[in-house]
Structures
1.
Amino acid sequence: MTNQDHDPTAAESRARELFEASVASLDEGTCARLAAARREAVYAAPRPARQAWRTWAPVAAAASAALVAVLLWRTPAPQAPATPDPVASDATLDSVELLASGEDVDLVENDLAFYDWLDAAEFDSGASAG
């Protein structure tokens, strides 16, 4: 049987008429007992557990968004890379050219001997500055 076999509005109207007629024919004592039974059934029915996360989820989302906004606002901007000092880069370039040329290697060896001598002599630059 499909829903198109009968007229649902006509059946609903007929059912409502019959229900209202039966309620109208009840005495007050029966109505009071029915109302009391209904109240007891409603109070005895298990209540759905309150889901606290539904209450706090929007609050937590707003607080998280505010925290992210503050962190992004307070984070310092990345510093631009420092430009190399042209004098220092020239000195490094000269050292590389010196080593690459293969000449004056004994000069480098003499420099190492000088640093060894400085270390052995315990040269104090602070004492001679005065």
2.
Amino acid sequence: MKHRLERVNELLKRELGELLTREVAFDGVLVTVQQVDITPDLKHAHVFISVMGNMEQSKAAMAKLHDNRKTLQHLLSKRVVLKYTPHLHFKLDDSIERGTRVISILEEIDIPPDDTPADEPESK
């Protein structure tokens, strides 16, 4: 059963990604479907969305997704045949932003090079 849910998640992710590209116009931001987690009863799908833009643009994109939820569910029901059409729950996924921030912080930290060669034990 678990493998079936994973396949359904991947299918929904791909189809929703295509629907967002074709059906919803976002103003100057890149909106992508990062992950979909469907409940075992197939009635609810949590859709994790990544928005490349500032916080205001992210909020606007999420509001647009919530406004278009019923339309997207309807279009999805025509493309993906399941026992139930899942109720879509959009959530902002900021993991890429957090990762980028961590990388930039790590780049700012000036770590002095280690003077001891890796193959020689430290002498005391």
3.
Amino acid sequence: MAHFAELDENNIVKRVLVVGNSDILDQNGQEQESVGVAFLQRLFGENTIWKQTSYNNNMRNKYAGMGDTYREDLDVFIPPSPYPSWTLNETTFQWNPPTPKPDDIITETTITTYVWNEDTLTWDEVVENI
């Protein structure tokens, strides 16, 4: 089975559909993204936009999910930014905070973790007793 993401006019993923392997084979029996796109355009309209995605993350950075953006310049799917202040690392395709997250601390009696606070642009400490 092959998976294809439908994109809107802003390259935002609208949905992901499964296409049978026989519907993406060319005349030589080879899988081709363009054949799958043509199949989906016959079903949903010639103006629809489709990009193949991999359930196993074998292509385009990650499996496309609703709300992800397809970056044509990088040929990858990118999840939405978790916070407006975070920036995309275009090498790892990960969103990075303005300041690195401190390491969690585990002692005999407490676990200290950190949660991003977008209002203050800092990491808030959360301490739990164990």
4.
Amino acid sequence: MALSRAFGLSRRQAYRYLELGRAGASAPLPVENSVTITLKMPASLARSLREHASKRGMTASELVRQAVAAFLATKRRHG
């Protein structure tokens, strides 16, 4: 809770940082401010996204951020 309040993190994110620290992992990069965007997708795809995220203990937003970042990273490497 103290990390969450001190750094403006969600409780889940603060817990992840604590677990990384306990495991001896390197510190994560600073968190950039987020903006809200709206996406339209088929309902079945949205359900699958939420289910997939839930099974991994993530939010749909976190999963989409990771997927988009990975996609863009491949685009940067390959032109």
